[in-house]
Amino acid sequence: MNIPIIYEDEWLLVVDKPSGLLTIPTPKKEKRTLTSILNEDLEKRGVSYRLCPCHRLDRQTSGLLVYAKGKNIQAKVMDEFRDKAVKKTYLAFVKNGKLFTQGEINRPIEGRLALTRYKVVKKKNDFTVVEVYPVTGRTNQIRIHFKAIGSPVLGEDRFAFRRDFTIKAGRLCLHARDLEFLHPVTKKILRLHANLPKELQEFLYSH
Predict the structure, then answer these.
(1) Average pLDDT of the chain to the nearest whole number
(2) Bridge partners (DSSP) listed for residue 120
(3) For residue 182, what pLDDT is reported?
(4) Which residue in 30, 12, 10 sits closest to 20, CA to CA?
(5) Cα–Cα distance, 6 to 26 (Å, whole number)
């Protein structure tokens, strides 16, 4: 597969994950994941190190995914995510609802603190474009939170029903667009950006 590389150096690789691909296997033990594809390519090229994911994206979510070249670097970057030191910005198309111009959703997920901030970017006839800033990193946090306030992400098929939408989307309209964090080795701030995928751009401009 042609996986776009957004950034690479001696210690890190950041790619733009396409929608529909798992980061790592689930308990179902799927063999084809983004991590397996990348590491199989390295093996074919005779590269000795292995790529270790520093965080995850849902199967249906596209966007920036950080890999470390080795376990030691992986642990350092994961610590930054755990300490909420990584600034994350997603772009989502959500069902029109009672959204403030900007606001926050503070609702526990599985008994654990979960906080999501957002800002409305554009209001369309059938949906709203929002920038989303997850403060915590619970599994499926953005999807759960926007469903909870009555504005599920378009294309949602796990936490909402098709009847919840007046408009259909071919995929989950959620994209991990920006990341900002401290490089674990150089100690410089990395600011990374992945453009909205073509299919989401086309959806946006055609509705």
Answers:
(1) 94
(2) 130
(3) 97
(4) 30
(5) 26
Q: Which amino acid does the sequence have at 68?
A: A
Question: Mind listing the pLDDT tens digit for each residue in 95-131?
Answer: 998 899 999 999 999 999 999 999 999 999 989 999 9
Catalytic residues: 58
Q: Say how far apart CA 63 and CA 138 lie, in whole Å.
A: 17
What residue type is 185 in one-letter code?
A: V
Write out the two tokens for 5: 């590389």
Question: At 136, is the pLDDT very low, low, confident or very high (cuts 50, 70, 90)?
Answer: very high
Closest CA to 52 of 41, 36, 28: 36
| CB of 189 closer than 8 Å to CB of 181 | yes
Neighbours of 123 (CB within 10 A): 12
Using DSSP's 3-state secondary structure scheme, residue 122 falls into strand
CA dihedral 24, 26, 32, 35 (to 10 degrees): 10
Do 65 and 34 contact (CB within 8 A), yes or no?
A: yes
